[in-house]
């Protein structure tokens, strides 16, 4: 055995890059989280979502918590837009901000109405640990003022959602179709436009990652790994409660 540096069972970037010369930094980050990526994209909560079988109370709780996630996500994405190197690197982030604060936000509002979510549940219930963890991680990434840290968290959030939504969309029932709260959430996280958002975030990581020194790279990887773990925690809590 060589004395190579490992991150869990995974190789560190310089060595990994030699083994995978045609793949980028974003792929390396995924390789460092081992089975956790698959655990998010194949989570049983997402299977239930794709079949329209999430019980209504779990659905309400998930949407209330996820709407709180969205607020910090918007701040973080705005921070990434501010820290991107060029106008061309900012524009896809700006366009995506518009989608999140437009169509995605009104999706939540319509769900709350249709599912009879009361203001007390919406505003008076505590954050889950996973929600708190995510809010803190997003705030930390923003406050680090390091573009790679910000994009790492965003790439996990969007990449894992493309992963599960794309998977379950293939087998979603059509007759009768899913209720809008199930189908529109899948629609928001599939398709050419959303895939282009994920590709943009990964391309940003592929650009900036190789410029980082060892300490900055390790920090970026920790953000990526923590975000992936929090995605699992979030779905676990959505499924099982706290
Ligand atoms: C927890 C979580 N992760 C990712 C997304 C996708 O934006 C979301 N809505 N919520």
Question: How would you characterize this protein structure?
Answer:
Helix content is 75%, strand content 2%. With 242 residues, it is mostly helical. It has one domain (23-240): Heme Oxygenase, Chain A (Up-down Bundle), CATH 1.20.910. The protein has a two-stranded antiparallel sheet. Helix 9 packs antiparallel against helix 11. It is globular and about 50 Å long. The termini are far apart. The model has no long low-confidence stretch (mean pLDDT 95). The site of 4-amino-5-hydroxymethyl-2-methylpyrimidine has 7 residues, from helix 5, helix 9 and helix 12. 4-amino-5-hydroxymethyl-2-methylpyrimidine binds at residues 66, 69, 157-158, 161, 231, 234.
Provide key terms for this protein.
single chain; 242 residues; mainly alpha; Heme Oxygenase, Chain A; two-stranded antiparallel sheet; 12 helices
The overall number of domains is 1
Taken from the alpha-carbon principal axes, the silhouette is: globular
**Average pLDDT rating:** 95
Number of helices: 12
Return the CATH architecture. Up-down Bundle
Unreliable residue stretches: none
Radius of gyration: 18 Å
Strand order across the largest sheet: 1-2
Number of strands: 2
Strand content: under 5%
CATH topology: Heme Oxygenase, Chain A
What would you give as the CATH superfamily? Heme oxygenase-like
Query: What is the percent of helical residues?
Result: over 70%
Bound molecules: 4-amino-5-hydroxymethyl-2-methylpyrimidine
Protein name: Aminopyrimidine aminohydrolase
EC number: 3.5.99.2
Active site: 231
Pathway: Cofactor biosynthesis; thiamine diphosphate biosynthesis
């Amino acid at each position: 055995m060589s004395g190579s540096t490992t991150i869990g069972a995974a190789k560190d970037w310089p060595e990994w890059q030699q083994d995978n010369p045609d793949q980028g930094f974003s792929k390396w980050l995924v390789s460092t989280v081992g089975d956790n990526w698959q655990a998010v994209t194949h989570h049983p909560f997402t299977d239930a979502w794709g079949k329209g079988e999430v019980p209504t109370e779990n659905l309400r709780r998930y949407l209330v918590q996820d709407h709180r996630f969205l607020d910090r996500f918007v701040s973080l994405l705005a921070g990434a837009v501010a820290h991107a190197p060029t106008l061309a690197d900012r524009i896809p982030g700006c366009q995506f901000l518009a989608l999140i604060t437009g169509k995605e936000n009104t999706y939540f509002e319509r769900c709350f109405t249709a599912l009879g979510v009361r203001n007390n549940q919406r505003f008076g219930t505590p954050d889950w640990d996973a929600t708190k963890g995510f809010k803190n991680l997003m705030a930390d990434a923003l406050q680090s003022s390091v573009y790679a840290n910000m994009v790492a968290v965003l790439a996990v959030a969007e990449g894992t959602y493309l992963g599960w939504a794309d998977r379950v969309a293939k087998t979603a029932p059509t007759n009768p179709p899913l209720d809008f709260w199930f189908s529109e959430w899948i629609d928001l996280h599939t398709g050419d436009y959303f895939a282009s958002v994920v590709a943009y975030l990964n391309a940003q990581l592929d650009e900036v990652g190789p410029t980082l020194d060892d300490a900055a790279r390790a920090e970026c990887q920790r953000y990526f790994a923590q975000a992936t773990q929090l995605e699992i925690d979030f779905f676990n809590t959505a499924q099982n409660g706290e």
